[in-house]
């Protein structure tokens, strides 16, 4: 693919690239390179040449593409012959004309109704080419005459399937003909490897001619540029605006607006629009922008500013111009209003005038403001104390706005005219003109009061609403100054001394020079005051001085002023920084002299609006206005609690309207979080190790919580769990369990009321305990802490249940019984229990409900019947352990006992420790009644002996009794396996006798091989007992076969009966014993190790033996 876009011709077509190149040398971070993928100038074509002909001659710049269609090359190269020369960047030279050669001239013609096309094929719009959505550019000429956009005489299309179907490429067509126009459009051509573009002059009745040149298809490369590189503004006073300077923002290939953003202290605008922090520039149809932007410096604080004006647009690299300026502070100033106060008039020396007020204002101050009174004048802040000392005002953010009160209190007679000066370093001084005349003080004792008449106006029977004052001072006194009220309705106090109001008298001791300094006397009226006019006075007197009377008047309504407040407020509850739920109470009043003031304590708010509109602080005050004459009808006062942190508070909401008795509404609130577990975990027992118990739901209740609460567990240590593996798991959904969970408070109620699911998952045997604990940043203790109640998790595990059941044999011997378990060597690994529980009873069956309980360890009482625990009444645990042979004693000679055995596991294999209480007993296959293994009771006779001996082909049976008691008869029983016996003969007994009796019988048809005999004694009442079995080996030579013979390895000896335990002797032909073995249950004799030869194999012992000759191969 040719890349001719870096040629001098291309730079000539786009002169802005020279600017970009130059700027890139100066500011390399603000430019982006454009990449053109395909560019065709058509300059190599010959006059009126067809596209296929030019293709064959290799005349195209992009000759790897395929050019076709019915359009032809323009007839000449003269720019005046309709060649592209009058749009920026035009290449000049040959173009493509959508027409056909004129056969009569050297020119071209358009035949009405004929369409003409230019097709360019093989374009790549994948990332290896232009990339998707490339930009299409070309020069377009249309001959004179108008054509609206709707006519669509000239169209552009693309195809992705070789021309089977086309998609239109919309673009803006030139409105006026007769000149070349540059056309650019951002297409929606997707990524593809073989794109075809077709230009068509659509045939119609018109013969207008269209020409195309400088075809370009390239990747869009949005680019922004800004100049100059920096702007420096002169010093500018804070709060003012500098003269504007300009930056120029240009952009190409933009696919969205450009946002120009000014930093703090600067603003921008376009044209005459208002200045703002940002302006938006809209690109033209070709994605281009070129706009001058005004920039001004508008500092808000003093100091140096250095930042950047940035221009940004989607897909383009953001560019910026540096801006700098220095902000200077405005000059500080102070002013006073008014500049002069009215004359204070005549005031006696030592007396004080009524105060007047002026206001001090200052701006841009860098130092305090000092207000200084002249001689003879005093100043104060409102409600402060008058003094001749200067007052210092501290600016806030460089500003002051303060009222100052001034009064005339001359110390010498004469005329006074001066200024109260107001100064602040750096600002011009200001002053307030004041004047007055001082008259001399009397030479004798005197008393001065001002005013001498006080009118309270309307009062109620309860008293006055306000406190009024008069000032008093005296001089040259020789005795104390005494203030006396005319009646008990008048109460007063010396404001300088403080204290309670009294109805007098008040005595004031003069100074050594006989003077009483100027002071205010505060006066109130207190009830009951009769209806109608009221008059009284306070007399100021001192020996030798003329008394001064201050007259006091009022007009009483005759009715008491009363405030009524009703309603009980519950404790408020919320979280820090969040207002609680609103509560309210009702407030009313009658015969009030002033509105009711409602004062909330700290952390509480009051409002007449349930939404608390305009209430921003706690401890606020609201006014409940009288709304019915002097009454307040029932009014709702809304209250809420708004604590800044976790705290508890209790106080009073004060409802006051003097002179009525104030009413207090108790309030209490808390924002301290609480959390508790509503129910306890019930101990879990008998959970098999490495399994999971059913879950339990524990309800977590939390109040006044904002932050998440993490619930975890503190595991109690156990020597069987050295790794502290968690034994319990937690879940919020009873599906997913883990070692901790996070509870999220309800965002509306700031509470948690949620089940916590807990399950036991033991990894060792025995008991396990964990304590639930929590952590939340809402609590003052932000560390993990215990709940304190209902937080204990407790459980016990048991071992796995055995899978194999052993069969026990019980042999009775007088007062003992021997229980034997026939277990293989690795019985535990094969699924048999690690231990066995033996239960003995005189009952022949064990009901299912009476079987041993898992998790219970039965202490056996030293294997003595009747001393151990009972698993049920009459069922004694006589042994528990791993022995395979157990002797149980304590049995009664005359009683038949039944034994029940149970396999169990309780050993923690990690530590080889038998854990008491972790027993898991193997239950019967079907939990029903279990028959007992009978332990035969002793014979009701004293059996001296019972024997069985082989006599030829018979077995001689003999038994001797020392005594007999109610003996009915004897049954001789025989068995092949020592387990299942059958009766082969019966012999009458002697009944009852104390002498020795001998019995002889013969088994005429004994079993071949090993067999067992036992004696069953039957009593006259039908009860029976058994002797111990006796084993006999009997061989009938006719029934003994040995095969195969000759033998190679294993010789089978068939006795016609059980051969297990039979003795086999192998001898050679000289009689030398080669080997002696006991036959197993399979009756096989191993002869593998013998050498080849003939041997004698003898089975049996004594009279009962058979010998066969066997050949070993």
From TrEMBL:
<feature type="domain" description="Secretion system C-terminal sorting">
    <location>
        <begin position="1042"/>
        <end position="1111"/>
    </location>
</feature>
<feature type="region of interest" description="Disordered">
    <location>
        <begin position="70"/>
        <end position="89"/>
    </location>
</feature>
<protein>
    <submittedName>
        <fullName>T9SS C-terminal target domain-containing protein</fullName>
    </submittedName>
</protein>
<dbReference type="InterPro" id="IPR017868">
    <property type="entry name" value="Filamin/ABP280_repeat-like"/>
</dbReference>
<dbReference type="Pfam" id="PF18962">
    <property type="entry name" value="Por_Secre_tail"/>
</dbReference>
<dbReference type="InterPro" id="IPR026444">
    <property type="entry name" value="Secre_tail"/>
</dbReference>
<dbReference type="InterPro" id="IPR013783">
    <property type="entry name" value="Ig-like_fold"/>
</dbReference>
């Amino acid at each position: 693919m040719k890349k001719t876009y870096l040629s001098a011709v291309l730079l000539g077509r786009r002169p802005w690239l020279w600017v970009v190149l130059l700027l890139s040398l100066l500011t390399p971070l603000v430019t982006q390179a454009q990449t053109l993928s395909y560019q065709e100038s058509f300059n190599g074509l010959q006059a009126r040449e067809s596209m296929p002909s030019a293709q064959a001659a290799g005349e195209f710049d992009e000759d790897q593409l395929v050019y076709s269609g019915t359009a032809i090359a323009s007839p000449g190269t003269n720019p005046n012959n309709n060649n592209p020369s009058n749009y920026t960047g035009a290449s000049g030279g040959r173009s493509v004309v959508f027409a056909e050669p004129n056969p009569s001239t050297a020119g071209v013609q358009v035949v009405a109704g004929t369409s003409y096309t230019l097709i360019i094929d093989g374009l790549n719009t994948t990332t290896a080419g232009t990339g998707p959505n490339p930009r299409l550019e070309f020069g377009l000429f249309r001959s004179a005459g108008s054509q609206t956009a709707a006519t669509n005489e000239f169209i552009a299309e693309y195809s992705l399937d070789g021309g089977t179907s086309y998609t239109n490429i919309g673009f803006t067509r030139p409105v006026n003909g007769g000149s070349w126009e540059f056309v650019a459009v951002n297409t929606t051509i997707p990524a593809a490897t073989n794109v075809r573009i077709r230009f068509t002059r659509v045939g119609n009745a018109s013969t207008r001619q269209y020409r195309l040149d400088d075809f370009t298809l390239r990747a869009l490369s949005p680019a922004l540029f800004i100049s100059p590189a920096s702007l420096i503004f002169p010093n500018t006073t804070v709060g003012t605006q500098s003269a504007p300077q300009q930056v120029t923002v240009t952009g190409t290939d933009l696919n969205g607006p450009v946002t120009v953003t000014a930093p703090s202290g600067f603003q921008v605008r376009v044209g005459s629009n208002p200045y703002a922090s940002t302006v938006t520039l809209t690109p033209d149809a070709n994605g281009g922008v070129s706009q001058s932007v005004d920039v001004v410096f508008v500092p808000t604080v003093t100091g140096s500013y250095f930042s950047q004006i940035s221009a940004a647009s989607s897909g383009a690299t953001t560019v910026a111009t540096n801006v700098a300026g220095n902000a200077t502070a405005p000059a500080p100033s102070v002013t006073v209003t008014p500049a002069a106060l009215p004359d204070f008039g005549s005031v006696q020396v030592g007396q004080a005038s009524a105060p007047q007020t002026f206001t001090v204002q200052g701006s841009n101050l860098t130092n305090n403001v000092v207000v200084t009174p002249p001689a003879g004048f005093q100043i104060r802040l409102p409600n402060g104390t008058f003094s001749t000392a200067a007052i210092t005002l501290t600016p806030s953010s460089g500003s002051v706005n303060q009222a100052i009160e001034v009064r005339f209190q001359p110390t010498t007679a004469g005329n006074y005219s001066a200024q109260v000066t107001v100064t602040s370093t750096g600002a011009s001084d200001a002053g307030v003109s004041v004047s007055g005349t001082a008259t001399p003080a009397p030479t004798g004792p005197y008393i001065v009061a001002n005013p001498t008449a006080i009118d309270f106006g309307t009062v109620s029977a309860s008293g006055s609403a306000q406190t009024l004052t008069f000032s008093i001072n005296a001089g040259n006194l020789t005795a104390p100054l005494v203030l006396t009220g005319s009646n008990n309705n008048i109460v007063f106090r010396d404001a300088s001394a403080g204290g309670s109001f009294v109805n007098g008298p008040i005595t004031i001791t003069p100074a050594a020079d006989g003077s009483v300094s100027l002071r205010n006397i505060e006066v109130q009226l207190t009830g009951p005051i009769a209806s109608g006019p009221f008059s009284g006075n306070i007399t100021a007197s001192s020996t030798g001085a003329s008394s001064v009377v201050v007259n006091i008047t009022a007009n009483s309504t005759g009715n008491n002023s009363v405030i009524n407040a009703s309603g009980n407020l519950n404790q408020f509850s919320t979280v820090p920084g969040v207002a609680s739920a609103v509560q309210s109470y009702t407030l009313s009043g009658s015969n009030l002299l002033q509105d009711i003031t409602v004062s909330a304590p700290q952390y509480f708010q009051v409002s007449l609006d349930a939404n608390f509109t305009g209430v921003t602080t706690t401890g606020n005050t609201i006014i409940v206005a009288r709304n019915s004459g002097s009454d307040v009808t029932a009014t709702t006062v809304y209250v809420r609690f708004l604590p800044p942190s976790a705290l508890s508070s209790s106080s009073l909401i004060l409802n006051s309207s003097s002179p009525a008795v104030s009413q207090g509404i108790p309030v209490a609130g808390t924002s301290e979080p609480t959390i508790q577990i509503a129910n306890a975990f019930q101990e879990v027992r008998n959970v098999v190790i490495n399994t999971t118990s059913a879950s339990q739901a524990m309800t977590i209740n939390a109040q006044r919580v904002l932050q998440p609460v993490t619930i975890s567990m503190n595991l109690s240590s156990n020597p069987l769990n050295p790794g502290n593996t968690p034994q319990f798991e937690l879940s919020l959904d009873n599906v997913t369990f883990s070692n901790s969970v996070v509870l999220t408070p309800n965002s509306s109620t700031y509470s948690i009321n949620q089940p916590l699911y807990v399950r036991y998952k033991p990894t060792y045997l025995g008991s396990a305990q964990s304590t639930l604990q929590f952590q939340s940043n809402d609590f003052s203790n932000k560390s993990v802490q215990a709940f304190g109640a209902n937080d204990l998790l407790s459980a016990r595990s048991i071992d796995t249940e055995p899978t194999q059941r052993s069969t026990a044999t019980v042999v009775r011997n007088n007062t003992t019984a021997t229980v034997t378990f026939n277990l293989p060597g690795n019985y535990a690994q094969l699924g048999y229990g690690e231990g066995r529980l033996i239960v003995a009873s005189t009952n022949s069956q064990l009901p299912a409900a009476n079987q041993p309980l898992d998790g219970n360890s039965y202490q056996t009482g030293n294997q003595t019947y009747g001393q151990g625990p009972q698993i049920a009444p009459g069922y004694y645990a006589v042994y528990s352990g791993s022995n395979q042979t157990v002797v149980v004693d304590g049995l009664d000679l005359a009683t038949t006992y039944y034994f029940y055995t149970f396999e169990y596991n309780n050993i923690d294999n990690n530590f080889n420790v038998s854990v008491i209480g972790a027993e898991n007993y193997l239950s019967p296959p079907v939990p029903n009644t279990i028959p007992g293994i009978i332990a035969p009771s002793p014979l009701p006779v004293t059996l001296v002996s019972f024997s069985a001996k082989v006599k030829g082909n018979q077995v001689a049976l003999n038994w001797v009794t020392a005594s007999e008691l109610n003996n009915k008869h004897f049954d001789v029983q025989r068995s092949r396996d020592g387990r299942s016996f059958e009766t082969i003969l019966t012999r009458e007994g002697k009944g009852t006798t104390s002498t020795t009796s001998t019995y002889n019988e013969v088994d005429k048809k004994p079993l071949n091989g090993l067999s067992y005999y036992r004696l069953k004694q039957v009593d006259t009442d039908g009860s029976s007992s058994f002797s111990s079995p006796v084993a006999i080996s009997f061989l009938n030579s006719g029934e003994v076969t040995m095969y195969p013979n000759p033998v190679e390895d294993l010789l089978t000896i068939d006795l016609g009966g059980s051969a297990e335990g039979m003795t086999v002797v192998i001898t050679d032909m000289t009689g030398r014993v080669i080997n002696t073995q006991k036959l197993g249950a399979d009756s096989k004799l191993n002869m593998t190790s013998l050498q080849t030869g003939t041997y004698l194999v003898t089975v049996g012992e004594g009279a009962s033996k058979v010998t066969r000759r066997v050949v070993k191969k």
